[in-house]
Amino acid sequence: MPSVSLTPPVTRLAANLLEQIDPLADELVARITDQIEIYRQASIVDRRELKQSLIDNMHQILGRLSGSAERDLSAPSRTGRARAAQGIPLPEILRAYRLGFAFVWQRLLDTARSAGQRSVDALLDAATTIWELADDYSLALTDSYRQEVGERMIAADRRRSGIISAILDGPGSSSHSAWEVAKLLDLPYVGTFLVLVAEATGRRSSPLPHLEDRLRQLDVGSAWRSQPDHEIGVLSLGQRRDPEEVLACIGKAADGRVGISPRFDRLDGAARALRLAQVALETVPPGTKAIRQLEDEPHIDLIVRDKETTRRFVERVLRSVLTLPDYERTTLLATATAWIEVHGSAAEAGRLLYCHENTVRHRIHRLEEHLGGSLDDPRKLGDLTTALQAIRTFPELGNRADGIS
User: Fold this and answer.
1) How many domains are contained in the chain?
2) How far is Cα 347 from Cα 356, in angstroms, rounded to an integer?
3) Do 201 and 186 fall into the same domain?
4) Are residues 207 and 289 in the same domain?
5) Exposure string (b/e) for 129-150, b if CB count within 10 Å is 16 or more?
6) Which residues pair with residue 236 across a beta bridge?
7) pTM > 0.85
C-alpha cells in the first residue's frame, strides 16, 4: 500500500465527504444495482447489507485520505469473503468496486470544484496516490475472495468425501442411510452402478485426469473420494448407458492400475463393490497401465475374503495339476474352464477350444486322474469349479508350483 502524504486541501475534501457518507451510500447502492444485474437480486445481496458494506469501505478509504485513520484493509477483506459466500462472480464484485471508487473520485472532484481551483489542482496531484489505494483495496478484496472460495471448496470436498464414506465403508459408518446419501450426492438409489479404484502413481496429480468431465459427457454421474494412494469413484450409469463404453472411457483416462467392481443395482451395494474393485486392482501387475473388472461369480465373496485361505484351497484341489509343465497345466485348466462353462458338453467345449470333442474327453480324463476322482462326483466338480473361479480372480494362483507343501 502506498505511503499516503496528502495536502490539506485533499484531506479537507475527504473529511467533507465523510460527513455525508450515509446519503452517498444510498446513491451508490442505486448506481450499483442499476448497472450490475446480480446486485439487483435482493435474495443474493440484501440492500441493507450492501449499503453497510459500502459505508464500511468508503469510511476506510475516506478516513485514510482525510488523515483520520491508519491503514486498514478489513472492509474490502470482509466484502470479498461475504460475496464469495453469496456465490457472486469475482469480476462482478470488482466491477462494483470500480464503480465505487469512480463514484468517490467524482464526488471528491465535484467538491474540489466547489472549493476552488487550488483544491482541484491539489486533488489532481493526488490522483496517482488515490488510484494506488484503489488497487490495494481491490487486491485485498480479491485475496480474501479467493481464500474464502478455496476454504469452501476444501470444506465441500471433505463433506462430500464424508458422505461417500457412508456407502463405501458400509453400514454403521454414518448416520446417513444409503437412500439419504443418494439424495445428497444427486445419484439414484436404484440403477446401474460401478465402483472403481485407481492407483495414484505420482506421475500426475490425478490417476484419472479429466475422467469426471468425460463421464459427464456420457451422462454418467459420479462421486469421488481421494486418498493418498488411490482415487475411488462411484459411477452411476443410468438405465441405458453401455457399460463397455464407460470402461473404454476409463481405460483412455487411466494413468496406472485401475480395478473395477462388477455391476450392481442398488447404492447400498457400494461397500461390497469397493472390496471387489480393490481386489481387481491388486491382481493387475504393478507398474502397468491397465484396468481390470471382476465378474460377479457365485463364490466371489468367499474367494476374496482371505486370499491366503483361497490359495491353500486351490493348492489342495489342484495340487497335482499345478506341478505340471506350463503347457500341460494351462491346457488342462483352460479345458476344464470351457467344459464347465458349457455344462459338461465335450462337443461344445471343443468348439470353444478349437479342438475335437474326443480331445476334450481325453483331457478331462487326465484331469480326473490328477484330481484323484471323477467329476461325476458333485463334491469334486464343486471344488474344481470354485478353484477355477479363484484362479480367474487371482490369476497368479494358477502359476506352476514345484513344491506345494
Assistant:
1) 3
2) 7
3) yes
4) yes
5) bbeebbebbbebbbebbeebbe
6) 193, 221
7) no
One domain, residues 307 and 287: no
Amino acid letter, 4: V
- Left if phi > 0, otherwise alpha if psi is -120 to 50, otherwise beta: which for 325? beta
Contacts of 109 (CB under 8 A, 6+ apart): 120, 123
Same domain, 325 and 239: no
Q: Are residues 316 and 290 in the same domain?
A: no
Domain of 383, CATH number, reads: 1.10.10.2840
- Mark whether 268 and 352 lie in a shared domain: no
Q: What is the pLDDT along the chain (405 residues), one digit of tens a residue?
A: 444 457 888 899 989 999 999 999 999 999 999 999 999 888 888 899 999 999 999 998 898 888 887 878 899 999 999 998 898 899 999 999 899 999 999 999 999 998 899 989 988 988 888 888 889 999 999 999 998 887 777 666 666 767 787 788 876 555 567 787 888 788 888 989 999 999 987 655 678 888 888 888 888 988 888 887 888 999 999 766 678 889 999 998 888 899 999 999 898 899 999 999 999 998 888 888 899 998 887 778 888 888 889 999 999 999 999 999 999 999 999 999 999 999 999 999 999 999 999 999 999 999 999 999 999 999 999 999 999 999 988 888 988 876 554
Question: Cell digits for 161?
Answer: 468425501
Distance set, CA 46 to CA 82, 90, 302 (Å): 11, 18, 60
Residue 270 and residue 191 in one domain = yes
Residue ending a domain, choose from 113, 136, 152: 152
- Identify whether residues 123 and 84 lie together within a single domain: yes
Residue numbers of the domain that contains 374: 303-398
